[in-house]
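Hey all, quick one. A colleague (J.T.) asked me to put the calcium ion job into the tracker so the inputs and the structure tokens live in one place instead of scattered across chat threads. No bug as far as I know, just bookkeeping. Sequence used:
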Amino acid sequence: MRPTLDDLEILARQAGVLLRAGYGRAHTIASKSHAIDLVTETDRRSEAFLLESIRRRWPGHSILAEESGAHDGDAHRWYVDPLDGTVNFAHGVPIFSVSIAYAEAGVVQLGVVYDPMRDECFAAGRGQGAFLNGQPLRVSATASLAKALLVTGFPYDTWTNPDNNLDHFARFAVRSHGVRRLGSAALDLCYVAAGRFDGYWEIRLKPWDVAAGGLIAAEAGALVTNLQGGEDYLSPPQSIVAANAALHAQMLAVLRGEA
Ligand code: IPD
Ligand code: CA
Ligand code: CA
């Protein structure tokens, strides 16, 4: 049975209640792959809730979830980031989200990103448009990089890997109105969908970071590709650029070192 967008929204809002309950409380913070790759008990609680809920109603579906990895099943696949923005959350910065996407045969069909601190629920179904709390979303029409406000993020191996996006950041910082670092890739994409940011790029993300937000941005009119301009931004080596078509072309040129 196919889930509906309402099903995803209900799940994201319920997980959001767990995030809000954990926010601001003393918590155990553990490091994962790198010193700055954090996980709290709230990430785990939210993920356990989402996995159990999905399995109960859609047994047999595959799930790729950040904290527990791949749960193989049939060709229906869920992408779950139970708390996108863990570093913010752990430091008491109220910018984080829950991200849930649903794909069939490798194509994302539904995506929801919920910000529990602002009660903002971003949602999109393929071919059905993108919405924020039920209101239609549209990307900005800013066609010039010199007038654009951008957002990006940095990988967790930034301390040790020189391919860490700081070069791109520096180049965009002197060619745009500014570059923000919000700390939740899922929200970055939704803010592009809402026209709050004009463009977004990032490298070395994971599918659960961008599966829902990528569809939401695309359904709001963004061109969403990898840094090479190809349409696959979910498979490794992952990278993503999202903006209206005119700005997207200028961003790719900067990322290629041509502008
Ligand atoms: C992170 C956030 C951040 C991005 C990182 C992601 P997490 O996800 O989306 O904005 O820059 O690369 O890993 O670990 O908070 O779920
Ligand atoms: Ca994430
Ligand atoms: Ca996460």
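Adding what we noticed when we looked at it: Residues 43, 66, 81, 83-84, 86 surround calcium ion (ligand 3) (CB under 6 Å). The two ends are 48 Å apart (CA to CA).
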